[in-house]
């Protein structure tokens, strides 16, 4: 009765069934692709890359201004709240809160007004010259925009903070640049119109 313990035949049979099933599935997928091919346009990455110019990435570093360095020192020493309460007008009676040190340091690098506005009693931004003078990134941006737009380039500016786009929009409009803004508050149809028209010199985008 050795055949009762001989499983090789059953194993081979099972393996054969699995192989047949895989073959059948492959044929079904191939047939489905053949049916759908006339209705689908599949663009491979390598095909698209041939249509686009090669990307050139240049990283520029902006030095912080003394104004920003002062804010950074207060942030690290956890004294910025007291400093702002002493130096800005809190006429609106609004007291901001500075939490999460790394986020606040990033905001200071983007523009110190992101920190100062929480304590400032004014609804208005400072004059453009002062706004640019406070921030190393804005000083660098100001120089780049003048050179790029003089050469008829279009510029895309991205920020994850919409408040930075608020500050930037004020700066760009006051400086006489043509600007278009697209963020989460812009409806899809309006986005499509703006992108299709592409008449602005500068596009501001936020995720």
UniProtKB/TrEMBL annotation:
Gene3D superfamilies: P-loop containing nucleotide triphosphate hydrolases. Residues 23-114 form the SNF2 N-terminal domain. InterPro entries: Helicase_C-like, P-loop_NTPase, SNF2_N. Residues 137-198 form the Helicase C-terminal domain. Keywords: ATP-binding, Helicase, Hydrolase, Nucleotide-binding. It comes from Heracleum sosnowskyi. It holds the Pfam family SNF2-rel_dom. This is Helicase C-terminal domain-containing protein. Residues 1-22 are annotated as: Disordered. GO terms for molecular function: ATP binding; helicase activity.
